[in-house]
Amino acid sequence: MKVIHSILMVTLLLLATVSFNLLAHSNDKNTAKIVAKNSIVATEAGKTVTQFHQALKSGDRVTARALLANKVTIFEGGGVEKSADEYAEHHMLADMKYLAEINTEVIDHQIKVIGNIAYSMSRSKSTGQFQGKDINSEGMETMVLLKAAGKWKIVHIHWSH
User: Fold this and answer.
1) Bridge partner residues of 104 (DSSP)
2) Predicted confidence (pLDDT) per residue in 139-149, tens digit
3) C-beta of residue 128 within 8 angstroms of C-beta of residue 101
4) Helix (H) / strand (E) containing 91
5) H or E element that contains 114
6) Which residues fall within 8 angstroms of residue 134, CB to CB, at 6 or more apart?
């Protein structure tokens, strides 16, 4: 377990040095609620990230929870949740309600796979209304995934809006 934590820490340090501005984005109007701008997510790890996003958007708590490692660490808004159960019991439902009401356009998304570890970095634009407030913001997301028993699980998420 210490090896996994060391690998994750090295990966997170690497993420701090990588630019999010490698891909340009289009200003085309899109009617879909979630729009991916490239095919980098075609890896199995990328598909896991996409499935997680779709599960949150559609309110599928079972799938969203299943894609998270039990000991996932989630950073958002200055807070931290230290397990999938903690996230599922506290913040997941609020995220689902928010995402169901807004449009999200992925500006760029990069997936890097290094053996049984992968990291995902993305920027997105959110627009719409939520609880009577206009939403027009950009956000960033970093995820670290670990492949165990042939399945990719999300072990870390950092959301910044």
Assistant:
1) 34, 126
2) 999 999 999 99
3) yes
4) none
5) strand 102-114
6) 128
Position 47 scores a pLDDT of: 96
Beta-bridged to residue 126, according to DSSP, are 104, 137
- How many C-beta atoms surround the C-beta of residue 46 within 10 A? 22
Global pTM?
0.76
**Of the listed ranges 19-28, 29-38, 152-161, the one predicted with least confidence:** 19-28
With tokens 């890097």, the residue in question is 112
Asked if 45 contacts 121 with a C-beta cutoff of 8 angstroms, the reply is no
Q: Half-sphere exposure of residue 141, counting CA atoms within 13 Å on the CB side?
A: 25
Spatial neighbors of 122 by CB under 8 A, at least 6 apart, are 106, 107, 108, 109, 110, 140, 141
Task: Give the domains, in start order, of the chain with CATH numbers.
Answer: 34-160 (3.10.450.50)
**Distances, alpha carbon 150 to alpha carbons 44, 115, 120, in Å:** 10, 12, 18
Residues 140, 108 contacting (CB under 8 angstroms): no
